[in-house]
Amino acid sequence: MSSLDVQDFIQQNRAVAEQVENYRGYWESDKHWEPRREFILRNLNDFEDSQLDHLLSLSMVWANNVFLGCRYSTELLEKVKEMAEGIVVEDAPVFKTRDEIVKKQQGR
Predict the structure, then answer these.
(1) Which residues, 6+ apart, have CB-to-CB distance to 46 below 8 Å?
(2) How far is the C-alpha of 94 from the C-alpha of 18, rounded, in Å?
(3) What is each CA distance from 88 to 4, 15, 32, 92, in whole angstroms?
(4) DSSP collapsed to 3 states, 29-95
(5) Where is the XRN2-binding (XTBD) domain (predicted)?
(6) How many CB atoms lie within 10 A of CB 80?
């Protein structure tokens, strides 16, 4: 589902779109919310209503990894990256680990 597909889906499914808008955190900028909303919409049909909290948690894991550089288990990151495949995040920050920074400094 591309960004245009997301917009088409929202136009055709107003009730679902309005429900998903309720999951936006007050702290989320448009830059963070729009890709997370796309993540939720892309994967919504793969989760039953009783599993919605799980989907929302996975969307936060993905967003936290992309935008804040939070680290999680390899298995969890592989899962959310697979679920987010094709989502384009403009101007995503690039994070370096402490080890990468130290290694670069030692190479001077």
Answers:
(1) 55
(2) 32
(3) 12, 25, 12, 9
(4) CHHHHHHHHHHHHHHHHHCCHHHHHHHHHHHHHHHHHHHHCCCCCHHHHHHHHHHCCCCCCCCCCCC
(5) 20-108
(6) 21
Question: With contact defined as beta carbons under 8 Å apart, do 28 and 36 qualify?
Answer: yes
Q: Which two tokens stand for residue 86?
A: 């094709």
Positive or negative, the CA dihedral 31, 32, 37, 38 is positive
What is the pTM for the complete model shown? 0.78
pLDDT tens per residue, range 58-90? 999 999 999 999 999 999 999 999 999 999 888
Asked if 94 contacts 75 with a C-beta cutoff of 8 angstroms, the reply is no
The tokens for 57 are 């948690």
Structural domains in the chain (count)? 1
The yes-or-no verdict on residue 108 having pLDDT over 90 is: no
